[in-house]
Amino acid sequence: MKEKNTTDGIQIFLRIRPSKKAKGYVDVDEADNSALNFHIPKNDDLIVNNTRENYRFKFNGILPQQTQQEEVFDKVGRQAVSNALDGFNSTIFAYGQTGSGKTFTITGGSERYVDRGIIPRALSMIFDEFKKRSNEIKYR
Fold first, then answer.
1. Exposed/middle/buried for 79, CB within 10 Å: 0-12, 13-18, 19+?
2. How far apart (Å, rounded) are the C-alpha atoms in residues 62 and 59?
3. CB atoms inside a 10 Å sphere around CB 27
4. Angle of helix 78-85 relative to helix 118-132, nearest 10 degrees?
């Protein structure tokens, strides 16, 4: 059996959806590209904030607004599919608020081929690997 090609445990990636009306409360930490900082002022008229003003969240990776679908698959999906083909359990779980872009990330857009999501790219990768590995492994 092959050796798993990742660290053990859960990895968490954040994809930031483009926003037409960005409020400026959120920014990726310049010193640490895997951390997200929230600053919510207490005296803002749009938001009621009775608690602390600053929050920091850390991830294995942050995919900024301009990230293309291919890059999302390369960072999140490729390793999971490869591990699954090598016999290791792998799961990709999309979580977020309604309208945050989960369906687009997972299934993709239907109008342009480059907008394919994780599932169609994973299927393509699986069949490509079947062709490459046809002499060494039999799949049922």
1. middle
2. 7
3. 11
4. 40
CB burial of 91-107 (b: ≥16 within 10 Å; e: otherwise) equals ebebeeeeeeebebbbe
The half-sphere exposure of 49 on its side-chain side, counting CA atoms within 13 A, is 15
Please identify which residue in the block is written with the tokens 């900082």: 37
How far does Cα 75 stand from its chain's mean position? 7
- Helix (H, G, I), strand (E, B), or coil: what is residue 93? coil
- State the amino acid at position 73 in one-letter form: F
Q: What is the pTM of this model?
A: 0.78
Helix (H, G, I), strand (E, B) or coil at 52: coil
Task: Decide: helix, strand or coil at residue 55.
Answer: strand
3-class SS at 45?
coil
Element (DSSP H or E) covering residue 15: strand 13-15
pLDDT, tens digit (0-9, with 9 covering 90-100), for 52-83: 888 899 999 999 888 999 999 999 999 999 99
Report whether 79 contacts 13 (CB < 8 A): no
Helices (H) and strands (E) in the chain, counts: 4, 5
